[in-house]
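Let us practice reading a record.
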Amino acid sequence: MVELLVVIAIIGLLVSLLLPAVQAAREAARRTQCTNNLKQIGLALANYEASLGTYPSGYVVTPGAGTPDPQTGDTEPGWGWLALLLPFMEQTALHGTLDFRRPCWDPVNTVAVQTPIPGFLCPTATNPDVTVGITDINQNVINGIYFARANYVHNVGWNDIWSAPANTNYEQPIRGCNGVMYRNSRTRPSDVVDGLSNTLFAGERSPYLADAVWPGVVPGAEHYSYNEFASSGTGGPGINYDNAGSYVGANTGPSIYESPQVIHPPNWPGGHTDQMYSQHPGVTNVLLGDGSVRLVSDNIRFDVWQSLGSRNGQEPMGEY
């Protein structure tokens, strides 16, 4: 009996020693899959640009189509960058079921926009549901609108444009959009004067912080974060909220609309709704304009993260 107990104790000790290694190996495999997802998105962006001459808009609105959001100027149809990339992501069949002449939230598109796409989901992210309810200021789902989840968001640039005053000049970027994709953007590679290899195009967003979706943006929606470390705002303790554009995009800071101005580094425990956030321990996968995917540390220098966020600032780049 004593010998049996000794054997059991030894086995238990070996298991306790091996378990962290097994978990680390599994996380490494999940991180690799996430990297591959972003590489496929990067390839789709390059093919989109080669076919149409520009990178996709962060999301699309049409002047005079429907009633604009009085705060942001957002209106129909709201289709987002990942929806526009579908034909270049081997999702031609799904793309064909969407009616892009109608708003992304139109009932005719309901089934299609609730379709989960594995290439838009990080296997490490704790995704509770395949769909996300699009909510109003009171956190009530608007008209039963649910969109399929995504774990990747595009880079708008430095500024917190979700809090910007309404801008109905749809042919010009919202003030402060110095990233690559934003509302109605038509950015060309020549516009990325900082260099494609020095410019952030996209990155991760885990629902541990806030939800993201692939179909697009609903005017008037409010986007909430629920991270327990989130800074307290008007939404209540531990809750942040922003306007609808942050369902598909993120910014890096500093924001001209905040006082004091804030840099939003990846995985920042302050929990800003519109930042990039992953659940890979200590790092976040980001996609650069040259199609490469880099692991960015939680401890990246703020000035380097800020430099990556702009397409045309010609800031000096450091190591990251």
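A brief commentary: The chain has one domain: 2-309.
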